[in-house]
Design brief:
- The protein is mainly α.
- The chain is built from ten helices and two strands, in the order H-H-E-E-H-H-H-H-H-H-H-H.
- It has a two-stranded antiparallel ribbon.
- Helix 8 runs antiparallel to helix 9 and helix 9 crosses helix 10.
- The longest helix has 33 residues.
- The two termini are 16 Å apart.
Length: 294
Amino acid sequence: NYHFGMIQHIAETGQLPVQDMQHRTPWMQEGSQPPLYYLLSAPLAAVIPDALNVPYPLDRNPHAQIGIGLARINRNVFIHTRAESFPWRGVPLAVHLIRLLSVAFGAWTIFCIAQTAHFVLLNNTLALIAAAFVAFNPMFLFIHASINNDTLVTALSATALWLIMRLILSPPAQHRRREIVLLSVVLALSALSKLSGLTLYGIAGTALLIRLIKRQSTLRQTLVDGVIITIGFILSCTLCYVMAAQGLRRAAGEVGANQPRAWSIDIAVGLLIAAPVYWAFTKFLAISLPGLTS
């Protein structure tokens, strides 16, 4: 599992991997994903004895029919053996703990969906139906029982949509700056989880425009809210840039990579160029940057 390979590397080294297109790595393309899910999962792997610096104890199934929904045989990526039998130890134990983290993200997603549906429809039964519709979706259950950064970006997306609907439907008198700040934080975390989290910024911007058109917010309030959300976006991009730059410095053996001066330079450069570079490279040029793109 490339996701687990990424987690192992971060837990062992404390930094993002450097992508090398000439060699096969344990994390492969996942090394170019925004890193929040892996950063949250790494401590779980780090505390388990014998969970680091060892390959996943399962062999890949050479006949696996991955991506074929109607497949009736060879549906598993790995050939499962007694190495992962209970009681779990080492890598299997770390894998199960991280899978439980994914389950927790899934539970939060269902909660947010129920809250959003109740807020919009004002009906407990319909809110329950909406939550059950997602909760019993086979692919939702499959993904949220695995190690996958989709679980975190889904949970944060559901949280953001809940906040956005509250923003649109709440009376003008209930406008609270702290809710905008909270939305900005959630959007930033979404962008740090997976590139698809960036699409939420378009939805949030549309929500601010709707409030302005409906005269639920003044032009000044709308501009201030937009600035708050933009600051969260720039800071999330800057954080990705700094982590990637620091990883490259250390991989190259640069003297003083961890000194305040190097950190200051990386942060300053990140604040100046991270947001436009992040957007241009991923959206228009399709170039992968270490730790920045998916």
